[in-house]
Amino acid sequence: MEKINGVPHTKEDLENVKAKAEKKAKELKAAAVKTIEDSKEKAKDVAGRVKTEVTKEEERINAVAKHQSEQLASEVSALVQKAEDALAGKSPAEAVAPSVPSLASEGQTPSSSTPSDLYTEPLPVGFEPPPGYKQPPPPKREAPKTPDLPLVAPAISSLGTSEPIISHLAGTIDSLASYLKSNPAAAERISGVLEGAKTDLTALAERIEKARDEERATLEVKMDEQTREYTLKLLETEMEAQDKLDSQEDEFRKMFDLRQAQLVQQYREKLENELQTQSELINERLKNEVIAQGIELQRRWIREIKMRVEEERGGRLAKIDELSAHLKRIERVALDNSAYLDENIRIHALWSAIRALTNSSLASPVRKPFREELRVVRHIGAAREDPVVAAALETLEASEVPDVGVEPFADLASWYTTSVAPKVCHVALVPDQDAGLLSHLASYLFSGLRFKRQGLVEGSDVLSVLARAEYHLNEKDLDSAARELNQLKGSAKALLHDWLEAARRRLEVEQALQVIQTQATLASLLVV
């Protein structure tokens, strides 16, 4: 890294500061991204909780459906119990029914005889078959036809996959139907009951499926609403994080620009100090070189004199006077060069001190004391013993202005425009002498009705003077503005007293510095 007298180069430091700022911006961006990811995780947690609630709601619906199915099962069980009770009430008829087969079995005992013994011809009423023949047994009665009972399981087969309990109840009812099929007498009476159970069970299964569809639709609507709500929240969180990241980036950019300006100012000051130091070193080196050259010339001439005296001792001693004159002229040149360099150094130091005093007293954006800079100018000017510079410096040192400083021109102009001029306008119509309260009130009221004048207007009234003073201030001519305002009298002069005092102090400093700069310029021309 390049250095100037141990001071790092400005560009390198600016790059380091820029790298640090970029690193900090990246860290902030990573933090913002992490915040967004945390927000997404929170949104996922919320979505998980919503899913859990939906699952719980589905379990509740399944529990309700199961409860309804169990209730239906209990109703079907009660129906089956009623059917069994009905069957139990018809047991005597069933007891008579088996007697018919028994008689038939008794009538069938003679059937063991050969068919040749049977008399198959028709017999008159009251007659018996001839001897050696038997009457054939009566024909067997056909068993009564059992009616087909309705089956419930095929009717609700489409609902059995979603509701196993309904399938189980349907199977139980079909088992009861199979049992009743083995008892034909009870099957005719219970078929209506089974048909009603089938209808009720089918309607119940459809109602459960409809309730489940309605609950599912409601849950889907709620799920969509909550999804939109949390999506909006997630977007708001992302936008807030992006806004924070943008604001932090702007803050770091401003900080970087401010730091860059500070570094530029610091290194500019260091460069000026270094240039001043280098100038002093160069001047000192030139002075030493001139002295060394004079001494060397003197020695060389002395050697030449000695050599020529030794060589031409015999008749050229008359040239010794001429050589001595040359030597004196050389010494005079060396002394003149030394005095010229000293005077240049003093003038350069005086100009540097004058510039420092001007920057501290007049060019500063704020008011600050400049006693130390004035003391430096006094010290440098005392070496030249310039009476004009001494008189100008004594005038400033005798006052308290160097201890408190002078108002900047911008502050004086702003003070005049915002505070002094409006107040003086209010008393523009007040007479210079014997002005009472009514005069001030009338002037305050009528001043607002008058048009504001601008530019170099003619007239000696207060508003014309204020317009000319404002014009001179806009032209940065403080002296002319103060001269115009100093002509006012009475209340206007009293209101302008503080402003005129501040302007007078600044003008005194400016005039003194102009005198000192003029004398420094004159001294520079005299040296040349």
TrEMBL record:
It is found in: Mitochondrion inner membrane. InterPro entries: MIC60 (IPR019133). Residues 11-38, 194-225 form a coiled coil. It is a single-pass membrane protein. The keyword Membrane applies. Residues 127-138 have a biased composition (Pro residues). Residues 105-117 have a biased composition (Polar residues). Belongs to the MICOS complex subunit Mic60 family. Component of the mitochondrial contact site and cristae organizing system (MICOS) complex. This is MICOS complex subunit MIC60. It comes from Moniliophthora roreri (strain MCA 2997) (Cocoa frosty pod rot fungus).
